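User: Second chain of the day. Same drill as before.
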Amino acid sequence: MQITKYLTKQKMMRTVLWSLLPIYLFSIYLFGWRVLLVLAVSLVSAFAGELVIMRMINGDKAKVSEAALVTAALFTLTLPPTIPLWITVVGTLFGIIFGKAIFGGFGKNVFNPALVGRAFVYVSFPIQMTVNWQKPFSGFPGGFLHWAGTADLATSVTPMIDMEVNGLSTNPLNLFIGNISGSMGETSAILILLAAAYLIYTKTASWKIMASVAASGIVFTLLFGALGGPQGDPVFSILSGGFLFGTVFMATDPVSAPMKDTSKILYGILIGFVTMVIRSFSLFTEGMMFAILIANSFAPLIDLNVKNWEAKKKAKAAPPPFKEVK
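Assistant: Same format as last time:
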């Protein structure tokens, strides 16, 4: 069976997949080859789920968008390396069906499908999603000689948890390089930043959203830290957890993000603000996922108000209509 005949080709989506390749290779180095098994399970689930649902909606000629594969690839990277495969299936299908297909398919969804799937498994299976963190392999060849970490390696904590529980800050260099525990794609800041540069260069993702999210995160980290919040170090806030990964790959989703330039900046500011509110004052150690989903719900309203504001501004700047003198 030729899988390609069931796919709608989307160049932009393939560009995103290429940008994820170094992150996946580094994830294998850290956590072993099981990373690829989790990815394969998610890809098959996304393909099958979207094909079935879209054919129920649009008939036998309906195809799967390559965006579904991007959803699976991104969703996989938000999971801990110890995640059971059945949770991968559940999360992928939930994201594809309830985050995308029920809205009518590609281009019609309000929320980022990968984050819809992650939010569902995060609140449904908190032990599997937040308790077991594998200590990464180190040295060369690292995880390239291992299928997965053994039981004695599944005893680590993420930098975010270490900060909240023990008050210990991880070395910024380790956060930058990525030899730390965490979800499969969130560890290496340098690889995520390189992916950001590639996506901006290819005009695949909005630099305005990325810049405004990062700037907002820094400002509100400093502000909430001054008000007594537990995190006052902007370097740690930006480099730890899923902040950078969400900024580059999730917040910039062209379907669920606003369209106008001014809207993108306001949208990014909202994401950074909500993320730091959750991190500083809630029970959750991480806030990026919820912040982006909240901002997704406001994106159409932001675009509408910016459009009306620009129209009023243009009307005021226009010269008065010519009146014929009798």
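The radius of gyration is 21 Å.

User: Great, on to the next one.
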